[in-house]
Design a protein that fits this description.
By secondary structure, the chain is α/β, with parallel strands linked by helices. The protein has eleven helices and twelve strands.
Length: about 325
């Protein structure tokens, strides 16, 4: 990725939330990575690992507890009001639940126009309506949807409206927070292929958060694997899927369903024992040590660093030092 420009530079980013008894929920606990212009960075991991919190912190929805988030070389915390306005225009989010993120009292055209009212105040009413029709056509919907309400359309169509709303103000970066999780299987592929098509046509950069490992492989250029708020592996699509190195990544990918019964029988499934520790009381060393079949004493006391073990392939595991 050396020839690509860095869009986001995340350095030791932490996002802690207060809990009862003066304790802290360490939702994101010191992650470091870059996002390059024009790429899709897939983020995977079990529920509660910090994927969504990571995306929201990068967008400034949450202010990072510690660490740095740099957008085009400038720290989000140093933004003035003009910087923040420009940032919010260029960086948008597609939310997981298409029903919950659309105001049921507003027609779809008005929902899509909200961003235009903030960032394109000089636009005439006719120009805004034309822009609404344009983004509706981007997502495969006709202009008559602008007068409908969210409850009058299907879940797949609502997700397309969420995408259209994000595209309306011409962003360059979009966090796709599990955009297919609430959709029927028959609609999921349509939405993912639509995102790929729009990326090519509009030059977009994505952070694609999902539980669906097959879809992540289909859309992503690089993959980031998270566990309990930490980044355990990061690398190119083929490198991660073809040669996963971290024990957790191996277990995660071994759970991908195999449609061929013969190959499914031959597949070496990795079974993990135990439960994910609480993000309030995470293990002192490697957070995966309580479930890792290869854990040693150093794993229980010392957190591993994310190191480059192959060109562009980073792993946080003491096994890599042996």
């Amino acid at each position: 990725m050396e020839d690509k420009k860095v869009l986001f530079e995340v350095k030791n980013m932490k996002q802690y939330f207060p809990a009862k008894g003066g304790k802290l929920v360490k939702a994101v606990d010191g992650v470091t990575f870059n996002i390059y212009e024009g790429e899709t960075l897939g983020v995977v991991g079990e529920s509660g690992c910090g994927k969504t919190t990571c995306g929201r912190t990068i967008l400034g929805i949450y202010r990072a507890t510690d660490g740095e988030v740099l957008y085009k070389g400038k720290n989000l915390n140093d933004f003035n009001s003009a910087d923040r306005m420009n940032f919010s225009k260029n960086c948008q989010m597609i939310f997981q639940d298409p029903a919950a993120c659309l105001d049921p009292r507003m027609p779809i055209g008005t929902i899509i126009q909200e961003g235009l009212n903030v960032h394109f105040k000089s636009m005439s009413k006719a120009e805004k309506e034309e822009k609404v029709n344009q983004v509706l056509s981007y997502v495969g919907l006709t202009s008559d949807y602008a007068s409908r309400f969210p409850h009058e359309i299907s879940g797949g169509q609502r997700q397309r409206i969420g995408i259209a709303r994000a595209l309306a103000i011409d962003p360059t970066f979009i966090v796709c927070d599990e955009p297919i999780a609430a959709l029927d299987v028959s609609i999921q592929a349509q939405v993912v292929n639509l995102l790929i098509k729009l990326q090519k046509e509009l030059g977009l950069t994505y952070m694609f958060i999902s539980h669906d490992l097959s879809m992540v492989r289909h859309i992503s250029d690089r993959i980031a694997v998270m566990y309990l708020g930490s980044l355990v592996e990061l690398g190119g699509n083929e490198s991660i899927y073809g040669n996963p190195l971290h024990p957790y990544t191996k277990a995660l990918f071994s759970a991908i369903p195999e449609p061929d019964p013969y190959h499914s029988w031959l597949k070496n499934r990795v079974h993990l024992e135990g439960e994910i520790p609480s993000p309030i009381n995470a293990p002192a060393g490697c957070k995966f040590c309580t479930r890792c079949p290869h854990a040693t004493e150093i794993c229980k006391t010392q957190a591993p660093e994310l190191k480059e073990v192959e060109p562009g392939h980073f792993v946080a595991c003491h096994l890599m030092d042996r």
